Amino acid sequence: MTASRHWDAHKADLAALGERARLRVLNPRRGIDFSSNDYLAMSSSPRLAGAVQDAIVRGVPLGSGGSRLLRGNDPEHEVLEAEAAAFFGSEAALFFSAGYAANVALLSTLPQRGDLIVYDELVHASMHEGLRLTRATAVPAAHNDAQSFDDAVRAWRAGGGTGQIWLAFESLYSMDGDCAPIANLAALAERHEAIMLIDDAHATGVFGRDGRGLADGLDGRADTIILRTCGKALGCEGALVCGPRVVRDFLINRGRPFIFSTAPSPLVAAAVREAIRMLADEPERRERLHDLVRHAERALAPLGVQPTGSQILPVVLGEDARTMAVADRLQRAGFDVRGIRPPTVPQGTSRLRISLTLNATTGDVDALAAALGESLK
What's the number of CA atoms in the CB half-sphere (13 Å) around residue 146? Predict the structure, then answer.
């Protein structure tokens, strides 16, 4: 019997990735956390665990049993959405199982044929997937360049474009740690009567009043939709789309990633409710994190690591193989630092992504800085 050739092309592709030092594998957690998005160390909080235990006692089920439009719409989902809208100041909120699904739903559902989407060139892969499915025209703008957004809008209008304009960007970029010029983009949206789609995933919980994120203050505007994930600083999972009520209603009726997905666990919804309360009740978590960020910026500065003003500090090394070798040395030294390669980041910008969380101490940061200095030699 001849050997099967069904998977030859796939094996060849994996081999090619390996030759370029780009083969991904799943590694277990090990060492001190310098890679997660659990910025406030809330995922292991006894308070969140207690909220889940209390929900179980109240009879809240683990599984939803179906999509929200069938039998999966649990009271915990609706209470969470009401409380989230009240906390952030939006007219309405809609809970998704993941930020990826939410971004795909937003960009593939809301912009219509004849519209224009101008998006930052470094937006998350989930936004790119939504852009791949959209019926609107989509054009990139230079990263964090409000003038580039404006130029794209003006060029489209000059070419006869008459539809709705959408501006898609992140508030805090997960691989560079830099922040968008939100005020300038908000002014641009007003000037062109555009709608902003803001992914506030990495800023929610860390910045803003009581952790409302970098987009804090824009909720309630008719021209603004804000995505806030629950699996990062909030320590849970899922995502909340906050915006006008018509957006919620339209996604429920037209958003395929929402309509045809099993609803998130009601127990997770109960945990997210408690996490939002914790943002307001425990401001010391944010204060400790910002202190840790300032300490890390000082400790890593002698190594040429540039401060970003956020909890994400990239160490750009350029070459894929060198990046992964340095990451491996750090992991063997007891520090969970991961290497990031294309296509996640642009060609030639492979990097270590140092993520600062309350799972590490200032002493851990100092030890990491010493190990990194040795590993870079």
Answer: 15
Angle at 351 between CA 348 and CA 356, to 5 degrees: 155
- Residue range 78-112, pLDDT digits in tens: 999 999 999 999 999 999 999 999 999 999 999 99
pLDDT of residue 2: 60
Choices 3.40.190.150, 3.90.1150.10, 2.60.120.430, 3.40.640.10: CATH for 283-376: 3.90.1150.10
Q: Write the DSSP symbol of residue 37.
A: S
Answer yes or no: are the C-beta atoms of 35 and 359 closer than 8 Å: no
The closest of 298, 330, 331, 304 to 318, measured between CA atoms, is 304
DSSP state of 272: H
**Per this entry, what is the length of the chain?**
377
Contact 21, 320 (CB under 8 A): yes
- The pTM (predicted TM-score) of the whole model is 0.94
Which residues share a beta bridge with 197?
168, 225
Q: Pinpoint the alpha helices (H) of the chain.
A: 8-19, 46-57, 75-88, 99-109, 125-133, 146-158, 182-192, 245-254, 256-259, 266-281, 283-300, 320-332, 362-376
